Structures are given as C-alpha cells and as structure tokens.
Amino acid sequence: MEKLRAHVPVLTELNRREKALLSICAAMLAAILIITCISINIRTNMQREYADVRNQIGASLYSDLYMLTQTFDMTSVPNADIKNAVIPQMKNYFIAATALNEQLNNIYGQRYQVLTDSDVSTLRAAFNAYDAAFRSDAPTDLVQADMQICMDRIKELLYTRYSEGILRAAR
C-alpha cells in the first residue's frame, strides 16, 4: 500500500504546468456537465411541447368527431331539415375532422391517426349517397342506415382511442 502511495503524486507536488492542465481538465469536465444538463432540459421541454400540441390537435379532432355523431342524431328528430341543415353541418365537422386526422398522420405518424383511409372513404361514400338521394328525391332510409354504421364506428373509435380526453397511440 505504501508503494502505491509513493507513485501517486500529491497535488502539492505538481508543478505549475501540471496544475494548470489539471485545472483546464476540471473546467472542461464541468462545462461538459453543464451543457449536458442544459441539453437534457431543452430536450425534455421540447418533448413536452410536442406532446401538448399532439393532445390539442387530438382534442380538436375528438370534438369534431363527437359533434359529427351528435349532429347525425338530429336525423331522427321529426321535422328536422336533414337536406339543408343536418347533412351540411355534418359535412363541416367531417371536413374539419379529416383535416386534423391528416395532420396527426403527417406529423406524428399512423399510430396517432384516428380515422383510417377506409373510415374516411366509407364516410365520403355515405355523404355522396345522401347527395344522390337528395338530387333524385329518393327516400334516405337506406342511406341513413349506412351513415348510422359510420357513426357507430366513430363512436367506437372515440371510446377506444381516447382516454380522459387524451389521444392514445394505436397499438
């Protein structure tokens, strides 16, 4: 043990040049440590902001999809103006929802996309069927049944993809 101590220089035995080099190394180590802590803090804040924006977009999408389903419920109200009020309002919610859904997909990836391409095309087909029925003055009972299937799918998505108002990633 004494032999080991004899070979390790004591700080007082170091010359000026060695002390300066040791001081520079200690300062560099401290600077690296400080920069690392700052970088970790910045990264954490960026991730938090990124998640906050995702949650805000997800909440807006939830609201539009929920209002789409609620507006569809108006089709069962007697004397409701389905052609001029209900369906146009539903289309507005659908357009807003698909825009937000595309943004979630583009920014955060498919795991955060709520409506699949199949869901979107099925809804578009249901809206087109309503338009065709209105143009030809045909009854809308079959079209309404198809749209009900779409609304049930949306309600299922809202239930499975959101937890306490926060969008969850798909599995």
Which key phrases capture this entry?
single chain, 171 residues, mainly alpha, two-stranded antiparallel sheet, 2 strands, rod-shaped
Q: Which structural category fits the helices and strands?
A: mainly alpha
Query: How do the helices and strands follow one another from N- to C-terminus?
Result: HHHHHEE
Given as residue ranges, the uncertain stretches (5+ residues, pLDDT < 50) are none
Computed CA radius of gyration, to the nearest angstrom: 31 Å
How does this structure look, described?
The protein is mainly α and 171 residues long. It has a domain at 52-167. Helices cover 76% and strands 2% of the residues. The protein is built from 5 helices and 2 strands. Strands 1-2 form a two-stranded antiparallel sheet. The longest helix is centred in the N-terminal third of the chain and has 57 residues, at 16-72. The mean pLDDT is 91.
Would you kindly provide a brief summary of this structure?
This protein is mainly α and 171 residues long. It has helices at 2-7, 16-72, 82-108, 117-135, 141-161, and strands spanning 162-163, 166-167.
Fold blueprint:
Layout (H helix, E strand, L loop, with lengths): L1 H6 L8 H57 L9 H27 L8 H19 L5 H21 E2 L2 E2 L4
Antiparallel strand pairs: 1-2
Helix pairs in contact: 2-3, 2-5, 3-4, 4-5
